[in-house]
Write a structure and sequence with these properties.
CATH superfamily: P-loop containing nucleotide triphosphate hydrolases
Number of helices: 10
Order of helices and strands: EEHEHHEEHEHEHEHEHHH
Bound molecules: adenosine-5'-triphosphate, magnesium ion
Helix content: 25-40%
Shape: globular
Length: 268
């Protein structure tokens, strides 16, 4: 949703550990590679992790509390990604100082203004306190992240319902860690369960998990299908029509053939 001509995406779910930061980091990277100027704001006041996933850990910098409290100007709290010049980053403080969510959102907007970002992506902690608190201050689209597990799906539905009850109208779902296992929820079941339109799917990818631990997000790596998943999602957010599974390989256990058909197949 445009806010002062800017698209603001707030990555959320009331469940922790479903991949919100993974989506925030990689969507930001993919949008920047698509030519957008992007500010990724780590607004997870409980446990910021985007810096680790991007390999920025240990880079000393001012943060959004410094901007909010007027200790520095916005540009001093912004880091430009060394791999992608259109990607900028700012963050909440690691510990201690807690700010009201509206102050954090306001400081993030100032940072986005400072780099003339067309796109602001805000990563948030599990729980919907942050999106609910800033709903009146900033026009955003909520990107709800869920895995295929029943608790995550239930959390996605609750997140969507609570945001809708507070007037948030623009919401889309990303299904993360997707597999085609026969016991897992199908894409249709996910959409029906979450009651939120689908923005995209991200396959389960063990390499991505390991890469992130080394500070190398999947979207920065060319030889895997996971970056393609984020590219597809980025292009959809920019209004392009991209088929859901274009260029994506999904791991999964195919259903076993029934015995009779298996015997027929053996004799062919
Ligand atoms: N598609 C995926 N394939 C494999 N591993 C993934 C995938 N998405 C996320 N992970 C891994 O799952 C773990 C949790 O992901 P992440 O930190 O993004 O979740 P989160 O929702 O931001 O968690 P929190 O609520 O604690 O902020 C991480 O180790 C991450 O690397
Ligand atoms: Mg997170």
């Amino acid at each position: 949703m445009a806010s002062d001509g800017r698209n603001v995406y707030l990555i959320t779910s009331c469940k922790g550990g479903v991949g919100k930061s993974t989506v925030a980091v990689n969507l930001a990277f993919a949008l920047a590679l698509c030519g957008e100027t992007v500010l990724l704001a780590d607004c997870d006041t409980k446990n910021r992790t985007a810096d680790l996933m991007l390999g920025y850990d240990g880079v000393g910098m001012f943060d959004l509390s410094d901007v909010a409290l007027g200790r520095v100007d916005a540009p001093e709290a912004i880091l430009q990604d060394p791999r992608c010049e259109r990607l900028y980053y700012c963050t909440v403080p690691p510990t201690g100082e807690t700010l009201p969510p509206s102050d954090i959102a306001d400081a993030a907007s100032k940072c986005a203004d400072a780099v003339n970002a067309g796109c602001l992506i805000m990563d948030t902690s599990g729980g919907i306190e942050f999106p609910l608190s800033v709903a009146d201050d900033i026009a955003y689209e909520a990107v709800i992240v869920s895995t295929q597990s029943t608790p995550a799906l239930r959390a996605a539905e609750r997140t969507g319902a609570e945001l809708a009850a507070h007037g948030v109208r623009r919401m889309r779902l990303i299904v993360n860690e997707f597999t085609a296992d026969k016991d897992a929820a199908t894409i249709d079941e996910m959409i029906d369960g979450a009651r939120v339109p689908l923005l995209g799917i991200v396959p389960y990818d063990e390499r991505m998990r390991r890469g992130q631990e080394l500070g190398m997000p999947a979207a920065a790596v060319e030889d895997s299908t996971t970056p393609r998943a984020f590219y597809n999602i980025a292009m959809r957010t920019l209004g392009h029509e991209i088929p859901l599974l274009a260029g994506i390989r999904v791991k999964g256990v195919r259903k076993a053939l029934p015995q009779t058909r298996r015997r027929e197949a053996d004799t062919m």
